[in-house]
Amino acid sequence: MKVKTILVSQPAPKTEASPYFDLSEKQKVKIDFRSFIHVEGVPVKEVRAQKIDLSKVSAIILTSRNAVDNFFRIAEEMRFKVPDSMKYFCQSEAVAYYLQKYVVYRKRKIYVGNRTFPELCKLIKKHKEEKFLLPSSDKLKDLIPNELNKLGVDWKRAILYRTVVSDLSDLENVFYDVLVFFSPSGIDSLFKNFPDFKQNNTRIAVFGNSTIKAATEAGLKCNITAPTPETPSMTMALEKYIKEANKK
Question: What pTM was estimated for this model as a whole?
């Protein structure tokens, strides 16, 4: 069956240079974007109940932009002035760059990892004397606390935001040839919004092993998967599939 319409379960790209727009133009397919999940900040009252004392923290571990936004939101709501001496350990350059929204970059102690958390831990290990705070969502990969515990550093987790299922009720009678997912939360959102969802002729595209696992466990057939050696990105995997499907 040919592919004419695709729904990507993420916000629309903010730049026109997105490979999705190139894919849409080259393969003559309609691509829509819609977040199946969104992030909500945890109220300051709930954060206080976690016994978080920002004045006792000397270093912040930042794994995402959401972590950056919500740390500074909570600091403001707690009327805590973040000291200039605070150290920031950022998982990637993108997160470190985003930090500039809140601090004067060149005047702060910022340490940048090489994308993965174990890589960031190599930097954390050199600063074992610090008291670390890990701002996180309600869902946290086991890898992160496991790695921090292995280092034996003084750290505390602060749940500052939650991943929440978005309301997709307006899509109830809208059908796409391909649905694209990037996380188990996206699969969860699909079935929370549409408990009676039947795949029928809809193709399911999934990114990452945990998403493949969640889709399979939910009874879905994964028609398109990434990353693979041949198709390291989702757009490449989609293009390969569309070329095959649409040439018939």
Answer: 0.80
